[in-house]
Write a structure and sequence with these properties.
The protein has a single domain, classed as Lrp/AsnC effector binding domain/regulation of amino acid metabolism (RAM) domain (Alpha-Beta Plaits, 2-Layer Sandwich), CATH 3.30.70.920. It is about 40% helix and about 30% strand. It contains four helices and four strands. It has a four-stranded antiparallel beta sheet with strand order 2-3-1-4. The two termini are about 25 Å apart.
Length: about 100
Amino acid sequence: MPGYIALMKFTDKGVATVKESVQRTVANKVAAEKMGVRIIGVWWTLGEYDLVGVAEAPDDQTMAAFMLAAVGQGTFTSQTMRAFSEEEFAQIVSKLP
């Protein structure tokens, strides 16, 4: 399945309710699973981003729908990127002239 990395920042609402962050993450994992998205992990980080998530989804549309639903809660913003595994990237570069 395609892989994705999400770099997330708390909104003001997310900071105000930060004590609920772990509970929200658990709920989002359940919601993701129902949509066919597998959350591999979520890490709370220091620096420019507050959280980093790694997930797999059947396709870009499914991942986009999940992220729109999650971001729609108003507690974080996200920059979500398609990530290629070592095997996928090997296939990509094998097509180079």
